[in-house]
Amino acid sequence: xxxxxFFTPENSDxxxxxxxxFGDEALVLGGGTFIHSLAVRGxxxxxxxxxxxxxxxxxxxSASAGVRLGARTRCAALARGPSEDGRWLGAVHDAARHLPxxxxxxxxxxxxxxxxxxxxxxxxxxxxLDGVVGARGSNGIREIDIEAxxxxxxxNSLQQTEFIVSVTLPRMPAxxxxxxxxxxxxxxxxxxxxxxxxxxxxxxxxxxxxRVVIGGGVANRPWRSRAAEGVxxxxxxxxxxxxxxxxxxxxxVEPLSDHRASGRYRKAVAGVLVRRxxxxxxxxxx
Amino acid sequence: xxxxxxxxxxxxxDDAYEKVAGxxxxxxxxxxxxxxxxxxxxSHHPHxxxxxxxxxxxxxxxxxxxVLLPKDAPQKAYSPVYFVPTLAASMVQDMLVLSERVRYVxxxxxxxxxxxxxxxxxxxxxxxVDYEELPVVFDPELAMRDDAPQIHDGVPxxxxxxPKFEFGDLEQGFAEADYIFEGTYETQRVHTCYMEPxxxxxxxxxxxxxxxESSMQHLFGxxxxxxxxxxxxxxxxxxxxxxxxxxxxxxxxxxGYIEPIAALLSMKTGRPVRIEQSRYEDFISSARHPIKVYxxxxxxxxxxxxxxxxxxxxxxxxxxTHGAEVINVHGFFGFLLxxxxxxxxxxxxxxxTNNMVGGGFRGYGAPxxxxxxxxxxxxxxxxxxxxxxxxxLKNSRAEGDPHPFNPEFTLSSYRFEECLRRxxxxxxxxxxxxRTRTENTKKRGVGLACQPMWVSGCxxxxxxxxxxxxxxxLNRDGTADLAVATIDLGSxxxxxxxxxxxxxxxxxxxxxxxxQSADTETVPFDAPSHASRVTYSAGNAxxxxxxxxKERLLEVAGTMLEADPQDLEVREGRVSVKGSPSGGxxxxxxxxxxxxxxxxxxxxxxxxxxxxxxxxxxxxxSMAPASNPSPATAQFxxxxxxxxxxxxVILRAVFAHDLGxxxxxxxxQGQVEGGFQQGMGYALxxxxxxxPENGACLTPDFLDYKMPTAVEMPRRIESIFIESNEPTGPxxxxxxxxxxxxxxxxxxxxxxxxxxxxxIRQLPITPEKVLAALGKLEAN
Lengths: 286, 780
Description:
Number of strands of chain B: 30
CATH topology of the domain at 415-455 and 630-780 in chain B: Aldehyde Oxidoreductase, domain 4
Strand content of chain B: 15-25%
Shape of chain A: globular
Largest sheet of chain B: 7 strands, mixed
Helix content of chain A: 25-40%
Number of helices of chain B: 19
CATH architecture of the domain at 415-455 and 630-780 in chain B: 2-Layer Sandwich
Number of helices of chain A: 10
CATH architecture of the largest domain in chain A: 2-Layer Sandwich
Oligomer: heterodimer
Order of helices and strands of chain A: EHEHEEEHHHHEEHEEEEEEEHHH
Low-confidence stretches of chain B: none
Largest interface: A-B, 21 and 28 residues
CATH topology of the largest domain in chain A: Uridine Diphospho-n-acetylenolpyruvylglucosamine Reductase, domain 3
Distance between the termini of chain B: 68 Å
């Protein structure tokens, strides 16, 4: 990597100016863990880094409408939880705990979303919670459903002069809970397969809403399995239903094969992880 | 023998703080004024002839001081292995520093020295190379075919070495067997994953003298090999001893490409040249060889071996290097000597391929053998219904038996049975059926594996150096300086040697200091830090030097105390008449006296002392050890297998080892735990992977090369140390270092079988292989 400039703009407008000025060579720096991993593998040529350190963008704000995470919030800040009334956020806390210790304290919420990697943990959880990404551009803040942010591998739908300032997770109704599980080779690994599940259950035990998202090498972006959600919607969530949802999710993906795992292995494990994520989420429903 | 004052008590490493504070002593931190930085251009092709190489543009890049091409490098074939004479008949001299024929992806082709690493790197891009591609072969069994591409001229079927050993009558043995077992066991290519990269600084001065600093495991081996390659007298090369290195594990037992390249660039530029390898470059510089082992074994229904046949195919990659010797250690200590049998045949093939070259790695061929042999014993016991401990004991040797490798020696200390019995007792082997075996979709299993026979150094091995030396010098403050060529790889060799010197001298371990500077000009030869040899072999030499120093100390003390030196002893830093510790004088006072001026001014005028007392109190040794005693090892593990994901978790590990005498308990435990981590990684996840089409490395860093972290390690690793008191060892010690790496893989494989009833004969036992074995993956 050839570092051709390092900037610490004082406010959002300066960030946007720099993005406009440098175009494709500009990279927004959050925690730097992803950029570092690209650089050491020789995947970055000439770059200009725009470090957001002087912008506030840090903190977890909880309101009745939901939880807003500043883009520069360290992933480690999400590792504790869920609290008693925050069970719907369970998947986020689970995912944050899966980040390697060496990464967790540096990586940021905005960075891990902007990287558009299906192998990262937090975005899979955010997608299960219908997360909304706040992108600041010259016309103010644009809200993007996180599913729409992901175009492909390492490819997001941000415009040239936009950068992420927040991720908002709308508060889920009573009877909601979520969980995230991950399968990897060791504690410093990217997901081979991961899964996040969120369920809302009514007083009679019927599932009124569900999200199932699979990460890792099952698709070129975190994959929301509507087939699995269809199995859950309106059903009573017994063992058979969870099993069926797992099977539906596995049938729903065409994972990649590489030196880390074959596609057929990822497919088999995807079904297992979806069932386990659902089981864990269900166990959290108050 | 009186009770030990130092031996057997945990001693702190005196370099621990320095290391956590950045480790100034690591070779990676060595800097020379005005030094240049070099980078190496490596082949993108697995097999090719260079038809044109043009560095004109690279030479013009500002900051570039020299470019080295094949035409600039000596075309003198060598074997890089440190611990043998360079032209040893048992090795293969098939390497060149830079060659116009490349045989694997990553082979060095050219190098650039520049004022910064970035400029050197940029200059590599400017070197133009045209290749004529040649046919490739990556599978050693395909490479052995008559129609395979020829990797080295004059080596039919690409077989670099083919040892074969026959004992007894194999056919007769199979005829006597009640059961015959056949199996094929395969192991993968793994790296030692030392933390400090291979790195060196080489300075050729105006007199043509070459000074080398490098992260390596053998001071004198580097001198010998580098002098050979540069075609200069050995005495012109001075290798500086690092205070310690950042790990080796056998991966730094050969001359790298970096040292001769840096030397040649230093000759060209007249400036010191530094080369530091990246993790990728390290990964393709050295590895444990993959070996495919075919076993055919006859046993009686009572569990006695009647015939053992083994054939081993070792993938040595583009050059023979260690592969020529690993195959023999594998054959003997991985197969032939492990369990006695009248009728045995083993043959090995070291085969060239277009893969990366192999190297040394703890166990040196034995892990591949143990995985095969110890897995098959488990299969045999399952079939004939015999407890695996009883089976092994029926086929084992006992203390006092002749040493099977070298009949001049006996197994003077050897407690294999005790390893099995005590390990089993602590593990709860007898009651193993009472455990929880299944919890939901997880299944638990237990397994054991042994390394019945191993080494304490290389005495008796053809062509391998095995001698050591030491200098012990006493100071006037009662301390001792210990100068040795032995390199501390990080496993605490310095501390062990300090303890041995301290015990012999009767002073505290804190009072023994390993000299801060040493080099090939100032210390006696030592063989490398390898082959589980330092405690036993270098330890004996240190003890010898300390004995010599002590003898002189007691002579001087004798004149001071007016006593016969024979009647004196040293304890806790004081010399006194045996049995009267209250009298006497401090060690420091004796040294003071020895080093004082002959005539001393006193109140009554100048007074002469005694000439015979004068001089530094110093002891020197250089010697080969008396024997090559075998330790013995048994490993027990409990695993939990997730039958839905195939993941294997190690719950518990118990390790029992006859090491003769425990010198440093904390150091020994650390070595066992580190060994288990490497063995467990080998068993479950580690593997260097390459593109099957073009040979490119797919696992160039720790994102894709996976080893166990602290999180994956079992919560309990228990070490049982059995002290058999080896008569030829320093204070009874023999060896510990390698068996703890050799045995985990078969123990884990056996435990996985116990858990799920399916045997996996190919390492690593990945989750995917487990699920496939359970029939839970869709057909391809």
